[in-house]
User: Fold 3',5'-cyclic adenosine monophosphate phosphodiesterase CpdA from Pelagimonas phthalicica.
Amino acid sequence: MKILQFTDIHLTRQGDTIGGRDPNANFAKALAHALDLHGDAEALFITGDLSDWGDEDDYARLKSIIADIPMPVHLMIGNHDDRQLFTSVFPELGNEDGFVQYAVQMSLGTALCLDTWGPDTHAGHFCEDRARWLTTQLEQIDGPVWLFMHHNPVPIHVAPMDKIMLLDAERFGATIAPFAQKIRHIFHGHCHMPLSGSLHGIPFSAPRGTNHAGWPDFSATRLLASAELPESYAVIFATPNSVMTHMVEFGYAGEIKGEGTPDYADWDRMTMVR
Ligand SMILES: [Fe+2]
Ligand SMILES: [Fe+2]
Assistant:
């Protein structure tokens, strides 16, 4: 199974920039890059912060862009989104409890897309209703299960981000722990930086995001630091026994020494020939 993860696309009004970067242009660039090089992926998951200001226009534009993508696209909402406006444009993604939570059958197991949105806050939430839904799903599905969500369920030890992580992380952990054998991986976003680790033995990972980039300043107290690091998305390969996640820095504009480039022989001699 091969899948793609974009996160924190932060679409905004045409022409507006965030941190000097154009989220609409970068989303288009990420799509063109991913579809050119990874058109064989079976699905694209976008793990939240779809719109920077939760604007209906952004969701309508996203919907029309997705209509032209030749693979299934699965959306989650993040703290910058507006659940009500999102589900007014994507009513099929709201479940009977009003959450944007749903299951997707994959060639290898089942993806569960989770809703960690809460009103009037940038922090993540996972209330009892959402936990009950997830427990029911995990009881019914044989596995393997792939979890997708916006907020990080484990602190990253950078204070400004940890204030707005998944605040119900204990409830979330207690919900998934009994099913650790069938949950293969958690894919999240929100932090705008590449992360990996585990929760109750379940691995997780996050790519940087397709627009603005965070920087892990462990002494920060109020604001997440940012840096001019390349815009990125994730490519994920999974077999019944293994998972590999790559962060592809499609925004990198520098040189790539590869097969067929003029100085590749020198590079090969320096690094590989012994
Ligand atoms: Fe974000
Ligand atoms: Fe976020």
In short: Helices lie at 23-38, 56-67, 83-89, 128-140, 159-162, 169-176, 264-271. The mean pLDDT is 96. The pocket of fe (ii) ion (ligand 2) is lined by residues 49, 78-80, 150, 190 (CB under 6 Å). DSSP finds seven helices and 13 strands in the chain.
